[in-house]
Amino acid sequence: MASDEIRAVVVTANGGPEVLDVQTRPTPEPGPRQLVVEVEASGVNFIDVYQRQGVYAVPTPFVLGGECAGRVIALGAEVTEFALDDVVATASADGTHATAVAVDVDKVVPVPATVAAETAAAAMLQGMTAHYLVNSTYPVREGHKVLVHAAAGGVGQLLVQVAKAKGAQVIGTVGSAEKEHVARAAGADVVIRYDQVDDLAESIRHASDGGVDVAYDGVGKATFDASLAALRPRGMLVLFGAASGQVAPFDVQRLNRGGSLFLTRPTLAHYLATRDELLWRAGDVLGAIADGSLHIAIGGRYPLERAGEAYTALESRRTTGKLLLIP
Question: What is the pTM assigned to this prediction?
Answer without folding.
Answer: 0.91
